[in-house]
Amino acid sequence: MNEFDELQEWILNENLIFKPSNPFIGRFVEAIQSGAIGMDLAALIRGVLRYESERSGGERIFLRVPRRANWPNELMYKLVGIVILDEVRDSYLLCAETWLPNWLPQADKEGPERPLFALKPRNQMKEVEGDPFLKEVNRLNYRCNAQRAAVRTVLTSPQDATILLNLPTGTGKSLCGQLPALLFSRQEGVTVVVVPTVALALDQERALMPLINRPSAYFSSSSRQRENKEIQESIMNGTQRIVFASPESVLESLDYSLQIAAERGYFKMLVIDEAHIVSGWGEGFRPAFQELAGWRKMMLRHSVTPFRTLLLSATVTEDCLETLQILFGSPVQLKMFSSVTLRPEPAYWMRKCSSRTEKINKMLEAIRSLPRPLIVYTTEVKDAEEIYSAILADGYKRIRVFHGNTGQDDREAIIQLWSKRQLDIIVATSAFGLGVDQAEVRAVIHVCIPESIDRFYQEVGRGGRDGKACLSLLIYDEEDVSRGRRMSAAQLIGVEKGRLRWDRMFARKQQLPGQIDTFLFPIGKRSKRINGRNDYNEQWNLRILTMMSRMGIIEFDWGVRGQISDSNDNITRVVRILKHHHQEESFWNEVEKYRRSSRGNDREEFDLINRLLKGEECVSDVLKDLYSINDHSEGIYTKNSVVAVPACGGCPACRRTNKLPRGVPGTSYPLQWPAENTTTELLEKYLDPVRHQLLLFREAKGSMQNAYSRREKQNMFRTIQWFLHQGIRHIVADSKWIQWIKEHEALSQRHIFFTSSLGEHSRRARVKWQIPTLVINEQPEDSVNVFRWMEHPTTKENPVIFIVSSTMANPIRPETLLQNTSNIRFYQYEVFKQEVGI
Known about the structure:
5 domains, seven-stranded parallel beta sheet, six-stranded parallel beta sheet
């Protein structure tokens, strides 16, 4: 009996125990159990029927449901596209029709909802075998090749490295920060992960709670005072391991605790999630993100040990990269790991309406037909509240609104309900969504024109995070276009007012004792001629300082123990002046040139929105132009080229030309860091002095045919452990070894990288990522690949040791044993073990 048949029995007898795995059936059952009624149930019943129909190849599927109070009535079923085929005293027999909206081009033939209910796989990313230390986060495999390469990039980086990980949504960026944080703090330590929203902090805390069993989300709330105090104390005594906090919290209430941790050697890593926000100028401008650069400089000076800086983003543009390089590109150069593949899951649909009334009606029609859960995005708080009211008036109760004015306690409650499948619809501004991982979202509706295509793509990315088809529906009118264009312009102060603000801050600055060109700049002083509240003035003064920082005129710094007030109790910032021509007229001409350039960039990005709306080219071509980065160097900064790999789940242009959904993930390799000789003198003594390789021939007993006795396994463990002590970090061997290593207490604690396929570790991979490696070859069919590897000398810093069968033939001369013809220094395995004392 399948789950649909079980559901039919359960509906007629709710006393039965029924725990379905299917997301549509599961959501419906949970809704019934939590008391859902009316239109909410009607939409969920539609989801069950449409899923089962698509699963059955488009057949009409029937479901009998009770006809009683709290269940939908005839009108509700009709509104959501359900037909009542049979009506008796106590039940209805139902069937759902396909939604074919004639107001969406080509939708009357294709049916926008069909791939969604069919749960069509779109993303071709495949899991790859994990390294042994993944058990730290209860994982066996990496989500994809790009995630593995990113994690290896971080774990092999120098302790003071600054890394930008540019990875597409769905590849698991969070793990790339969380896993190293946990590995680096096994004994003691703390990593601070800066997140843009409380929703994301709570989401991450919930995911890590089974692993660290302590609060890790730090934010201001009346309900979190006890947890916040516990986090502060744990940071200072080195037991916190990881904390998620906003940039404002890091710079203010957590600053003291984190400085103490740095002085005691506990601070391991600074991670900035959604790092593209750092470059934002728009309505949501948050200077604290950019001030983190100055705070980081102070922490690097005061920390007794170096720490890594990790920037995470799925949407790095060329302008964003330049900003991050300026702010975080010293004292060591920022390195970028990039594996940018556009999302293949969303199908894009668009409709321009003649009025707001038409727009709301089209939205309501879509909501009645589309699968749950779904998100409705708009731009302003007022619009979000109006749309929320309209959906409530249509009869839905499993819905909440989330925007900048939503209180902290309400935000926490909404995130909890959303994650537990107790909400079906969220109406939101951009305040909701960044990093909140709800894998089942099948539809994202925009009832607005976002001010940038970057924001649009970010929000569309809330759907299809499980790799299955999702839908992006953009419904707008002319007023939305005008508003989006207005909001797209960077909020940069005019030169005249900007100069006035700068001159006043400069005149009131106070030099810090013993520091050249470093001052406390007052930013919170009310001006008689420049009206506005203190926080308003503070925001604009920070914009001036931020703009000058991006221009290379100043750089932010930070005071020890949060020194941000002067003797007059003004709000201040620590600023280091790098160039001194700011009093000259030529400088302000440069400022005007910068302002025009910034506005030009904003116009160019809104031009991408216009290209999207015209629908004359594939959406992936528009997005590719935004997220590809040209290769060039400027001063101390280098930008390596990034080509966004195109993908499209369907768009107006592709549907007109009958192009099918497509998307192929790219290939990724870890960054190659500057070579460091980490191997011991003892190992170097046995390496071939020219090729930096060592060949060990092992007798082909039962062990080489995969029949390891317990004693042979222990002997090989001792050999592996010896080589690890000599500086080997990467093992290439049969996949059974990774399982055995995970079971071995001592070996599983080490940062060992493991590759189980010689084919996967191709010549290109070996060139791209060189690391001290041990190869255990047990498969005769891999002998040719092993031989080719031997043919290419390695470097002194990255030697390779081969353990092969004594009967391995020379592939060039198959009648001859390799040990009789090899030009690499070699030993018999047992002799070598005795000589080194294994």
